[in-house]
Amino acid sequence: MTTPSQQPSETPRPGSRPAERTYAAASPDVDVKAISPVADEVTSPPTQPSVAEEFGPEIEAKAGELAARYPQSRSALLPMLHLVQSVQGYVSQEGIAFCARQLDLTEAEVSAVATFYTMYKRRPCGQHLVSVCTNTLCAVLGGDDIYKRLSEHLGEDGKPLGHEETAGEPGEPGSITLEHAECLAACDLGPVIQVNYEYFDNQTPEKAVELVDALRRGEKPQPTRGAPLTDFKSVERQLAGFFPEEEDVFRSDVDAPSQAVETLRGAQLAADRGWTAPVMPENAPLPEVEAK
Ligand code: FES
């Protein structure tokens, strides 16, 4: 006989309760918890679309397009997980099952990939994902202070917001998921924050608080460089490889200068001084590559 807590159920929908309260798992590992929902406390708000509706014909067609882009369909798993996130705002158990079906993989194989990369979220995300770089260089330049200030500012009742926790109702306008991130590849512009992977350079705790307050008011501040700000789900659709078809819409949505003066300073200095890299000898021996 099965007890209620042993019965499988639908993955929890975005809601106000933190994931840990509704997920049960064999180990305390948060990744395992978040992709292994067990039933007893889980209910779906009536206004949410069903999973079948979310992964309906339109998404199935897009998944088919992705699979067809590769000689081996399993290579489409990474973009397909982004497609799942563009639908649900995270990778749910149903999202994992969807990818497995589309790509003829086991759910265990898909789970192994989804839980390996931090870009795949195992809990429902806010409208915006705010990533604060706390890797070494940004940390010493103030990244740790920024993260601390934001987690306190976005927390409730004196409890700071934790890593990958959401202020507000996940998916609702103005909701923000906070995370600390490893090097965001903009060390020359640290400390940096990304919002939905767009850069806000040379931040301070005060500027960061202004930024998240603007997001909570529904504004979309212009990133320091790169494309205009949208929201987490829209960016996930782009990361899955789906872009506006009209050239001018594409340009305005996703294309913008991404380099900064600081980033080009070394190249500029070399050009000013006439420095060039040594020429590669004609017959330079190349290392042997082992045949597989
Ligand atoms: S350490 Fe923050 S971007 Fe590299």
From TrEMBL:
CDD domains: TRX_Fd_NuoE (cd03064). It comes from the Bacteria. GO terms for molecular function: 2 iron, 2 sulfur cluster binding; metal ion binding; NADH dehydrogenase activity. Keywords: 2Fe-2S, Iron, Iron-sulfur, Metal-binding, Ubiquinone. Signal peptide: none annotated. Residues 1-10 have a biased composition (Polar residues). Its cofactor is [2Fe-2S] cluster. It holds the Pfam family 2Fe-2S_thioredx. The keyword Iron applies. InterPro entries: NuoE_dom (IPR042128), NuoE_N (IPR041921), Thioredoxin-like_sf (IPR036249). Residues 1-27, 267-292 are annotated as: Disordered. Belongs to the complex I 24 kDa subunit family. PANTHER family: NADH DEHYDROGENASE [UBIQUINONE] FLAVOPROTEIN 2, MITOCHONDRIAL, NADH DEHYDROGENASE UBIQUINONE FLAVOPROTEIN 2, MITOCHONDRIAL. This is NADH:ubiquinone oxidoreductase 24 kD subunit. It comes from Saccharomonospora xinjiangensis XJ-54. The lineage of its organism: Bacteria, Bacillati, Actinomycetota, Actinomycetes, Pseudonocardiales.
